[in-house]
From TrEMBL:
The lineage of its organism: Bacteria, Pseudomonadati, Pseudomonadota, Betaproteobacteria, Rhodocyclales. GO terms for molecular function: structural constituent of ribosome. The keyword Transmembrane helix applies. The chain crosses the membrane at residues 122-141. One of its GO terms (biological process) is translation. This is Ribosomal protein L7/L12 C-terminal domain-containing protein.
Length: 143
């Protein structure tokens, strides 16, 4: 393993050897969830000096999501989670979706199920509507 515990992808190396720099950068971004600048820097260093160390991760791990994205997933809002990951990590749509999918596959909390102590958004709305309807009925029909 090189650098921060990540190997340079073999398919990115093949693309680099074929002179396809952009394709190699895309592969590195998709494989490791790096932003464009980090991936470009690593690919260029690998091109100039094979075996170059991977850039240090500036977050806890390749598969960790921002807390707002995790909260969105807990509420069953996958599209919102992908949008958050794209905005905070500077990833493209495909890379952000792959990162969210990997997180779901490795997560202890199933997709759409809130972590303990958190009420999913839809359930909160249902409870609110039931309370409002009951209150309205009480006011209209009197008690």
């Amino acid at each position: 393993m090189s650098g921060a515990g990540r190997d340079f992808p073999a398919d990115a190396r093949a693309a680099l050897e074929a002179g396809q720099l952009i394709e190699a950068i895309k592969i590195v971004r998709q494989t490791h969830g790096l932003d464009l600048a980090e991936a470009k820097d690593w690919v260029e260093r690998e091109r100039d000096a094979p075996g170059a160390p991977a850039p240090a991760a500036d977050h806890d791990g390749d598969h960790d999501l921002p807390s707002a994205a995790e909260a969105a997933l807990a509420g069953g809002r996958m599209i919102d989670a992908i949008k958050i990951v794209r905005a905070e990590r500077g990833l493209g749509l495909k890379e952000a979706k792959a990162l969210v999918d990997r997180h779901i596959a490795q997560s202890d909390t199933p997709f759409g199920h809130a972590a303990p102590g958190k009420l999913p958004g839809i359930l909160a709305w249902v409870v609110l509507i039931v309370v409002l309807v009951a209150g309205g009925a009480w006011v209209v029909f009197g008690a």
